[in-house]
Amino acid sequence: MRLQRWRKRFLFSVIVIAVLGLTACSGKEEKKASSDNTQKEYVYQPSFKEVDLGTKEYLGSSCIDDGRLYINYSEWIEDKENKEGGYSKNYFLSCALDGSDVKKTEMKALKNREYVLNLFLDDQGEKRFLTKRKQKYFLYTVGDDGTVTDGVELILKKEGKDAGDIYPVYMAFSDGILYVGSGSTKIYTFDEKGKQGKTYEAPDYIEGLFTAQDGKVYIYGSDGEEEDYRMGFQELDTQTGKPGTFSPLEEDYDLYNVSIMQGEGSRIYLDNHSSVYSYDLSNGRLEEEFNWLSSGVDSDYVSSCFFLGEGKFFAVSGNDNEEAEGRQTEFVTMKKVKQTDVKEKKVLTIAVAYINYDLKREILSFNKTSEDVHIEVKDYSAYEDPVKKMNLDFTAGHIPDMIDCDSGISYDMLAKKGIFTDLYPLMDKDPEIKKEDFLPSVLGAMEKDGKLYTLPFLFSMQFLAASKKVTGDREGWSVDEMLKVYEGMKKGAVFMPLCDRERFVSTMMRQGIRDYVNWDTGEVSFDSDGFIQLLKYSQNFVSEEEFDYEKEEPVSVLLKKGKLFVNPVELYSMNDIQQYYRMYKKKGGLAVMSLPSGDKNNSIIMSVDGAAPAITEQCKDKEEAWKFVRRFLTYDYQKSWYNSNGACFPSRQDAFEKNLEYAMATEKYTDEDGTVVVPFNSNGNWDGYEVEMGPLSEEEAEILRNIVSRIGSCADFGGEMEYICDIVDEEMGAFAAGDKTAEETAEIIQSRVKIYVSENS
Questions:
Q1: How far apart are CA 654 and CA 674, in angstroms?
Q2: How many domains does the chain have?
Q3: What phi and psi, each to the nearest 5 degrees, are found at residue 71?
Q4: Would you say 604 and 703 are in contact if contact means Cβ atoms under 8 Å apart?
Q5: Is it the case that residue 114 has pLDDT exceeding 90?
């Protein structure tokens, strides 16, 4: 699968160990989950229980055997007399599934700094530990009481001059042989004495390795095809070591970082920390069992999940609890019940391409406190192309009640299609939230024909930083004017850091995409003189492949020598302005320049940060949906984010000014609402440029207010914009090779993009 190198949002990556040897499932089947709001026959009902396991430490891996939970964890004991400053202790803990009958044993057989990588059941039902100490790996058997026996070192064959480092991630047992997926394409085998046997090769990187209930070993990973990238399963022939026929996940699913749970017969369960899916190895059928968030569970804190059979899942969750002074452990049971047996609530759905933390937190809070409404999440992140799948569902009429506009969608395109509802009438009815509460420039950037479909509670700002000695008093410019100013600099000047041919065009065009594509009118302007001029001038730079990054001088050196023309920057917090203000102070002052445009306007770009939920026209209850959306727009909510996270700018005027007040504080004080304000103090190092930062001055605060007032548009990083930018990349290749002129290239781009915009408007 090819990932665009400029994508704004990234998938998180967390390695999850496969869970083996669990009990059977109920075998009941339910209808395949649909993208619309069709009522399901069965749902999973959660129950929660806080338990005291006698430790506040982070829990390690775990397994379930004969109705008891077994967990390992370690704690660090500080010891000043120890040359390493302390030592680690490893513990083995077990309890009943209701949290009672807790038993704990220190595993003294493990050495200092010997880390447990996995606790699992082998194919004979024995509990096993896999540990790592320095660059050595050990396999142990452990009894119910924590007694460690039969420890063997996994003896690795030397690869070249050095012994191999398998870094075990995924494991399976079959007929007394341990199979270890190394996280690459290799599968190592070891016998009971730890001696390494044959090494096998998978087609591509291994994402999972497990033993099915019939004793067969399976690989979960991709088929290795770059153009037609798919995730799926292959049986590993344990006699020949050859993977069998590849069985891809259906419907373009792309599940990563999964833990794998054994079920009945050919059925297994996959948990990707967003949802739990069932998969039938015999026919390749994939079904979503439940979504963690919709079920009221924050999967970020789930350390282990098990299938217990008869429609039940059991999870171990640990959350940081200030009152408990450490981790608070909670057991979660998910039980499959008939929809008719659950207390009826009005269900509102929200679609996301990728879920972010603040949205997740508010959904959990809303569902916990609301007696009449429940928000369900339609999370498209499990698909190979989440945005594409989402848009296909919308086109087919499967439109949710709400959509998060900070999850990779094209806000402009969906607004043009009339999917969203105007929030202003809902604000007019609200006793607390009004249009006048928000920064006018932010409202202006988000409005469409005087209507407001979504409003981020946090935003960042993008512009070109430069020296006023070079740019003068101007704030905006055309492409021609910008290039003439650059050419007027002394010989050897650098246009911008790391400026290869592709980055030059992408920086000037991608973030200012609205100068070339207007979804509101359908107008496309890639045949403009300005864009043609950018293409022509790009020939002054080498390609990305030819660029020598080793010879690039640091920004600090370029600034000192007066050789840096512009520097694309993004402000994420109040104090960021101080960094750039002080960097350019001795260079005539900081010039905040807009991207080049035909009318030389001085507007800058904002980006959405954090949740930005929109209500659809098809929403079943807009008043109830507004009760959720408004949570992000209150003064208390927006003000709290600066104090707790120190990042991004609130969209409310009062919250913005309050956070600016905090950033200017020179003495510690307690605000009227109890907020403890501490003066900012930090030393910044930006590519070798040292900047001492403290409370903002009045001048710096005023500069920041001025920058905010210049916001003119919001960057759209949806899938449609990716597609358009890919068109530009593709056609630039022929131009750079000399096969087409700049005018011909612009004409082809213009035609392709115009067709695409027309088809998707």
A1: 17
A2: 2
A3: -135, 145
A4: no
A5: no
